[in-house]
Amino acid sequence: AENMETINRETLQADFDAFDISEEFGFLLEEPLVSSFLITIEIFCLYSLCRMSLMPVLIPNLLSDHRELSLAHLALGFISMGYVWQEGQHAPAQVLPKALAVPYWLVSRRLGLPPILTYADSVLANWKLRDPTGNMDLIFSFPGGESCRGFFIVSLLVEMAASSGIGALEVMHAMKSSDVAGIQNGLVKVTQSLKKMKETFKLMHSKFKLNLSPIFVSGWRDNPMLPNGLLYEGVSTEPMFLSGGSAAQSSAIQCFDALLSIQHDDETGAFLTRMRDYMPPAHCQLIETLSARPSLRDLILSCSSSDLCQAYNSCVSAMVDLRSYHLFAVQKYIVGPGNRTMGCPLRGVGTMLNDKGTGGSNLMGFLKGVCNTTKKALISDRPCVQADVHSDRQTEQVVNR
User: Fold this and answer.
1) 385 inside domain
2) Is residue 3 part of a domain?
3) Is residue 74 included in any domain, yes or no?
4) What's the domain range around 265?
5) How far is residue 44 from each of residues 54, 59, 138, 207, 293, measured CA to CA in Å?
6) Predicted local confidence at residue 292, as pLDDT
7) Residue 296 CB burial class (10 angstroms; 0-12, 13-18, ≥19)
8) Can you tell me the distance from the alpha carbon of 240 to that of 254, in angstroms, rounded to the nearest whole number?
9) Residue pLDDT, tens place only, 43-88
């Protein structure tokens, strides 16, 4: 048993290394670089928004470490978003000047990411330890005080809560050896992770009282404010169409979908697949690895273990709960504030995005759709099942509208 445990630990560690994840931090970038050169970046930020045309083109060829490149991508992403949206929804920039566009493009190519602020940037790589006790803080945020800061902090903490969902890897390996107990134990860990993610999500209301306008994380694909995309000067003669960062780019959520064999409809599934282009390549590889293996749901349907069936249903139900609360939170803190012209950092901006997510999707329709398709994964035609969905009444009201 001890030898088997050692083998399992070695196998999991190999997975952690291959897919760029960790047992402690999950999909978060482990120990992001925070250096004194941030002062130079801050000066560049202030100068660039005013006199970008006079800035020299910086070639990032001296950046070699992955963490250096990640910090550069994060910084260039925040600067670019600030530049494009500094005048609000009615006068966004149509061209990203070459002083930003060229280094951004070069860094992006080396990381395998698009040249836009992604969820992987603003959440997974945008953190530091505030003090020795382990409290986390942001490296970058947009103007707007606690409302904007809270949005990114809560998203960060939700991803941190997903770290125990690494049980998905245990399920994957247990399936290879038909280890029913191993599959069940892994599912229990994923369920606990999903429940913790939902409880952490609630901090968005209880701690930060968010009223958010999402314009500064909006992209230039399927966006009525930039219908012709954005031209990257010095990179391309044609404008680029790129989606802004959104929770649809969360590596953890898409991994759980793949693990549980949750099948979204054609349009939603195509959108989620496209969002993988905005994830770190190693994370995308993990999702594809999970998707390529035999269906966990089919395996459970073919076996006689009622305990395993119940563990699967509990996991799917926890995913439904999380998605339902996400829908409720978006309605209350993003779509609602947009209608009331409140939020950070510019009052009155982002009202054109009420029906569009920052990633370019039909926001409410997309969120309701993923909730409904997740529910369909529940196994309800066998005696082992008791649907374990305990959605908040407020959440259910939003979902059923």
Assistant:
1) no
2) no
3) yes
4) 21-377
5) 12, 15, 19, 33, 47
6) 95
7) buried
8) 25
9) 555 555 556 666 778 788 888 889 999 999 999 999 899 899 988 8
Into how many domains does the chain fold? 1
How many alpha carbons fall within 13 Å on the CB side of residue 128?
A: 12
Is 326 assigned to a binding site? yes
Q: At what angle do helices 363-376 and 266-275 cross, to 10 degrees?
A: 110
- Angle, helices 251-259 vs 266-275, to 10°: value is 130
**Do the strands 231-232 and 95-96 form a parallel or antiparallel pair, or are they unpaired?**
parallel
Give the tokens for residue 211. Answer: 């009223």
CA distances from 78 to 42, 49, 107, 123 (A): 11, 11, 14, 12
The Cα angle at residue 373 between residues 353 and 269, in degrees rounded to 5: 60
Rg (CA), the chain: 21
With 0-12 / 13-18 / 19 or more C-beta atoms within 10 angstroms meaning exposed / middle / buried, residue 20 is middle
- Structure tokens that stand for 229 in this block: 């995309």
Q: Report which residue type is found at 296.
A: L
Q: In this structure, which long-range contacts are made by residues 79-82, counting pairs with CB atoms below 8 Å and at least 24 apart in sequence?
A: 79/41, 79/44, 79/45, 79/48, 79/49, 80/104, 80/115, 80/116, 80/117, 81/117, 81/142, 81/216, 81/217, 82/45, 82/49, 82/142, 82/216
Burial of 240-259, coded b for 16+ CB within 10 Å and e otherwise, reads bbbbbbbbbbbbbbbbbbbb
CA angle 33, 126, 94 (to 5 degrees): 115
pTM value is 0.86
- CATH number at 284 reads 1.20.58.480
- One-letter amino acid at 326 equals H
* Residue 388 falls inside a structural domain: no
For the chain, percent of residues with pLDDT exceeding 70: 78
DSSP 22: B
